[in-house]
Amino acid sequence: MKNTFQLLAINAIISLLYSIINKFSAYSFLNCAFIVGMIYFLFGLLCFVWEKGFFNITLFSFNKLSQEFQRRKGVLTEDINMTIEDYVNRENSFYLTNSLLISGLLISTITIGISFMFIS
Predict the structure, then answer these.
(1) pLDDT tens per residue across span 25-45
(2) Are residues 87 and 98 in the same domain?
(3) Are residues 24 and 75 in the same domain?
(4) Where are the alpha helices (DSSP H) in 22-55?
(5) Cβ contacts of residue 115 below 8 Å, gap of 6+?
(6) Rg of the chain over CA atoms, in angstroms?
(7) Which among 41, 48, 70, 75 has the fewest CB atoms less than 10 Å away?
(8) Domain that holds residue 28
(9) Which stretches make up the DUF3899 domain (predicted)?
(10) What Cα–Cα distance (Å) separates residue 114 from each residue in 12, 39, 120?
């Protein structure tokens, strides 16, 4: 929860600085807050997908290709036996994933709601 509040504060500071630079135009704060919130949300989604192991098979195939190229060049002399189970069962954990998802979704939802209130 501490990281979520820190991310919210960083978003507020960035949005405030951007709106000051734009001389407090009507929607500059909301636009910047929404964009930063969506960046948080997208990075959170990327971390979430990475944690669940979506890219493990891709990393395995690139490592196998790299080893094959090194073996053909003669750089790799020892045979490293990697199995696909080593990559599939690998656990990744990022400590900011939930904070990024929560703060990005919260910021984006609030800014969309405020924008609709300004329109009507």
Answers:
(1) 778 899 999 999 999 999 999
(2) no
(3) no
(4) 28-51
(5) 27, 30, 34
(6) 22
(7) 75
(8) 1-52+93-120
(9) 31-115
(10) 15, 19, 10
